[in-house]
Write a structure and sequence with these properties.
2 strands, 70% helix, single chain, mainly alpha, DctM
Length: 589
């Protein structure tokens, strides 16, 4: 019994692992484990009974957490956009743009996956949408099934790291850091992953072109009425808008000075990026709108169509992330604006009806309840775990590792990688992160950087064979039997589960490479954060001394030449001296 009392924390953690391996639901495993070991701890005198009185207050605190309100807002935004056909329009248009080059459809899937990640934040919606729309096209025109499956699954998981990611919201809450800071820190790593995915496709297209063929001419239907491609007009519009965006970014201080009427000498990097990109995108949309309304014919039909398909979701991204990055709105407010913007987009496309809205609301409610129940269970577990000195046990276990910070980071990432075989990011965030954060903070690891690093690692939980959820989502929509293609009338072989698993491995390696890059080059994350303002106290002191009248003693600023002659007066005539004497005479508590 003494052994159990002295080692209740590791026994409790091992008990939780047993509950999870049995297959018991995570939320109830956490809650049951917390309450069960609380009773044991109280009976053995290890845990004070009064500690459990805090449990109702902590559960009520979960319901009062305004940060978590961003989850249903972003989920609703993503589900409405996905069900309103935005993903289908994006994949069709971008696929036609990149189709003439080898691997073009795969590149289009990655680009659209990044755009969906920045608007939906939901992996299931992205993978299922792209699996239903783009997988038949890639199979129709001879793409290797492993490459097609891997591209779709990996592009869908971008919703885990590209803001407004749900996992970043959860991590910010668990780490006690700002959601906006984690969004800023994850911005560059997320788009570096996009670039690495594209690089892999280009390498395959160069060395094994037969695996990623270009679309045949008869499949390229994005043309003007006269048969021209219309791409030169689109290229000119793109060059003009990009050039003006770059010009605006280089002259951001002057623009802010003109807008505010006050001299602005410095503009934050994230504000510069958001403002300049929004300026270029708005300019393209205005030009296309004027061309369509007036019938001037300055832009081709292709340029108009591409603009009207790509710009609305981009403007929605800037509406949500731009207001968060600029500090205009909190993530919760940004999510509310995003949900409202998605509804407006669906109405403008005449695709919003009662059935669509009902499905989106039901899906949002299910996911939100899932998160809250896990969080309540995690609260029960963490209260008991803290009561039996569990955090102290974890701290001793991890802080004494060889290698200091680097050893801690390597072990933690290996542990999270293998736990991700069995747990998804919600469970990892609520179970593991609260145990790791105090140790990381004590070792001097920046928690914002640490949160982004864990988010990249947790992204692999969707790609792990055999339990990766993205692989399951793709398996549910990929053809499992031979079928006749509607366009070519040819028989298409099914996509096997083994092919889906094998296709995920190269992209899983890229995600692990990104984890290593972030550890080796912390600036990948920290460069996107606001610069910390530091003050030189010695310089401030010197400046104050220089600006003070010569008759004032800096050590005794209340002592002037006039009062110096009165310094010999009795204490009761000097209120400051009387106060000091009174404080010294007061008894110590």
């Amino acid at each position: 019994m003494e052994f159990i009392a002295n080692n209740l924390a590791p026994i409790m953690f091992a008990g939780l692992i047993c509950f999870l391996l049995i297959g018991f639901p995570v939320a109830f495993s956490l809650g049951a484990c917390g309450l069960f070991f609380a009773v044991i701890g109280i009976e053995m005198g290890v845990l004070p009974e009064a500690l459990m009185q805090a449990l109702p207050l902590r559960i009520y605190g979960v319901m009062q957490n305004e940060t978590l309100l961003a989850i249903p807002f972003f989920t609703l935004m993503g589900l409405i956009l996905e069900r309103s056909g935005m993903a289908e329009d994006l994949l069709d248009t971008v696929g036609q743009l990149f189709g003439p080059i080898r691997g073009g459809v795969a590149i289009a899937v990655i680009v659209v996956g990044a755009m969906l990640a920045a608007t939906t934040g939901v992996v299931a919606a992205s993978v299922i949408s792209m699996g239903l729309i783009s997988l038949p096209i890639m199979l129709r025109y001879g793409y290797d099934r492993r490459i097609a499956s891997g591209v779709i699954a990996a592009s869908g998981t971008l919703a885990q790291i590209i803001p407004p990611s749900l996992v970043l919201i959860i991590l910010a809450d668990q780490l006690g850091r700002s959601v906006g800071d984690l969004y800023k820190g994850a911005f560059l790593p997320g788009f570096m992953l996009v670039g690495l995915y594209m690089l892999l496709v280009f390498i395959i297209a160069f060395f094994r072109p037969s695996m990623v063929p270009a679309l045949p001419p008869e499949a390229r239907d994005l043309k003007d009425k006269n048969g021209n491609s219309g791409l030169p007009s689109l290229l000119v519009l793109t060059i003009i808008c990009v050039g003006l965006s770059v010009f605006a970014a280089q002259n951001m201080e002057a623009i802010h000075t003109w807008i505010t009427g006050e001299v602005v000498e410095h503009v934050a990097k994230d504000e510069t990026i958001v403002f300049s990109m929004c300026f270029g995108v708005t300019l393209a949309f205005v030009a296309a709108s004027i061309n369509r309304i007036t019938g001037m014919g300055l832009l081709s039909t292709v340029a108009e169509k591409v603009t009207f398909v790509l710009i609305p979701p981009l403007l929605l991204i800037f509406l949500v992330l731009g207001t968060i990055f600029l500090g205009i709105a909190t993530p919760t407010e940004g999510g509310a604006m995003g949900a409202m913007g998605a509804i407006i987009l669906a109405i403008s496309r005449r695709r919003l009806n009662y059935k669509l809205l009902q499905q989106a609301l039901v899906g949002t409610t299910k996911l939100s309840c899932f998160v809250v129940f896990i969080l309540i269970g995690a609260t029960m577990f963490s209260l008991t775990f803290q009561g039996v000195d569990g955090p102290l046990w974890v701290e001793h276990l991890l802080s004494d590792l060889p290698g200091g910070q680097l050893g801690f980071l390597i072990l933690v990432n290996i542990m999270v990688f293998f736990l991700a075989f069995f747990l998804d990011f919600f469970e990892l965030s609520f179970i593991i992160v609260p145990l790791l954060a105090p140790v990381a903070d004590k070792l001097g690891v920046d928690l914002v950087w640490f949160g982004v690093l864990l988010a990249i690692n947790m992204q692999t939980s969707f790609m792990h064979p055999p339990f990766g959820f993205a692989l399951f989502y793709l398996r549910s929509v990929a053809p499992d039997k031979e079928y006749t293609d509607k366009v070519t009338r040819q028989r298409i072989a099914p996509v096997t589960t083994t092919q889906i698993y094998l296709g995920s491995i190269p992209f899983l390696c890229i995600q692990l490479l990104m984890v290593g890059l972030v550890i080796a080059f912390p600036g990948i994350v920290s460069s996107g954060l606001d610069e910390k303002v530091t003050y030189d106290l010695d310089a401030i002191r010197e400046q104050m001394e220089a600006n003070m009248p010569s008759a004032v003693d800096f050590e005794n600023p209340f002592m002037t030449e006039d009062s110096a002659s009165e310094s010999a007066a009795p204490a009761e005539d000097d209120p400051l001296k009387a106060m000091q004497d009174a404080l010294e005479a007061a008894p110590a508590n």
